[in-house]
Amino acid sequence: MADQLTDTPAESTSSDSEADRVTGAAILRVVDLEVHFGAVRAVNGVSFEVQTGTAVGLIGPNGAGKSTALKAVGGETRPTSGRVIFDGIDLAGRPSHVAARAGMIRTFQLGGEFARLTVMENLLVSVPRQRGKSIWGALGGRRWWGAEDAAEIRRAREILSRLELREKENDYASDLSGGQRKLVEIGRALMARPKMLLLDEPMAGVNRSLARHIEHALSALRNDGLTLLLVEHELGSVERLCDRVLVMAGGRQIASGHMGQLRSRQEVLDAYLGGR
Amino acid sequence: MAYYLLTLAVYVVVGVIACWGLNLQFGDTGVLNFAYILFVAAGAYTASILSLGHPNSSSYQHYFWGAHMPWPIPWLAAAVVGGLLGLLVGLLVLRRLRGDYQAMVLLVVSIMGSYIVSADPGFLNGGVGLALIPQPFKGVLHLSQVGYEVFYLALALLAAAVVFEVVRRIHISPLGRVLRAVRENEAAAAAVGHNVAAVKLLVMVIGGAIAALAGAIEVQFIAAWAPAGWDYTETFGLFAAVIVGGRGNLGGVALGALLVQGLFLEGTVLLPNIGNPALIGAIQWMSLGALILIFLYFRPQGVLPERRRTYSSDITTRRNRMAALPAALTRRSARG
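Structure tokens for the assembled complex are given below, as produced in the milestone run.
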């Protein structure tokens, strides 16, 4: 599953071991991020780093500001202040297509698929810098873009095979189950040749079997060297997947570390784990 | 009868061209351009003033500028003006507003455009409109009326063929996939790197150019153009054709234009006069509204729905498909 699942850039695939992952250079630096909605401070001065090739989890109780922080990092929500430095570029306040073109692709908690496009088309949409995607390229006809498109179709089939969705390639995304749609989104993100994935609750609302399948897929990506930042409520999955976990509550970052260490921290127990 | 059928045929071809442009915006990309008729009108006025010649102060009709241009310059210029208008309107409307607000503002823009032209008689002859617009090659060919209509139908079909090839190439290309992705989910399209506002702006420009070309073809056929002919309600006649035929399906959209523009709207004109003369027009629009509602309720995908795009597992290019054709035919004949 792990090998060749993603066509990530060379600098992101060089390290395999967990030690290397944790000590790699920071690909993402978030500095004093604030998102205000009127008087509500949904994200209040959050700062963290994500090292290249690592998986970082963002956890916390409902209303902690995790998804808002993720949206602000990915460009969907404009931050009130703060910096989002990705791969050397400050993306704070830039729209999400700019973040995506820089190599940071996000998936959605709900309804992120292109419902009336087939699974194959869902994947092909995110291929970057394709010949037939400009107006002149499109008018050039199939002879101009056909061979390149055929190569991308083969790459999409490889990704679908590894996500066990190959037989669904001609189904509309709207005809898939919730878990399969999440896998399509992951496949679509991989087609964009990302340097980093932002995943908003990839296992939410998915049956246990498919959730495990998604977890294995993400684990394989992490082992391939792809950087992950995920918001997730399923703490078992977070512990297995993530090298480091940030805990948020009331818009603030209250702790960070490995999941095993965080379980014993009183402020985390108070805010989120409820004494478990 | 031949004259009537030829006139109807030209109207249908103009309607098909206009609907293909609207389909690019609404059917493929999900842009609710309720100002679409404004672009048709812009093309019609452009072709008119580029055919009428310089305005004469002693003439009964006044317009701000004019020239005598040979065909096809008035049509090409109309397309350019339609594209530029699409760029201008798109920049004003698409960048900051959400889809439903975009639709409302576009409707207002259409109404404003009609009032502006009507209010100033010196701009484009006000509410009276322009008349006696020269027809291409009319004075050179010396054809009978029916003969000229056949010739004009051929010109219109030539333009339709060019427009079809343009929209078909966009439709089947990776750009076409991006348009449909924007239609389905703007946030997700942006999240994989597509500038949604730029994509919508592109279809406003191309769709605007196609609409304007349709207007140019129509105005040089009927030789007159006035604000009453491009009321904002006309946009909904074109929307009806796209919805009935099948948004996202080029053949379906052409069928919708034939059914709605050629048969449905023309059919109500043939109704006998009963009561108030304005009643026929009212019945026409009421029945058009009912037709849209019926399709949106019972068959929203239209008569010919958008095709599901599948990719064969080993051959993807047309050249390869053609190369594989003899073998496929041999297999079929062996089975048969």
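The interface with chain A takes residues 166, 169-170, 172-178, 180-181, 184-185, 187-196, 202, 206, 306, 308-311, 313, 316-319 of chain B (CB under 8 Å). DSSP finds 14 helices and no strands in chain B. Further analysis is deferred to the final report.
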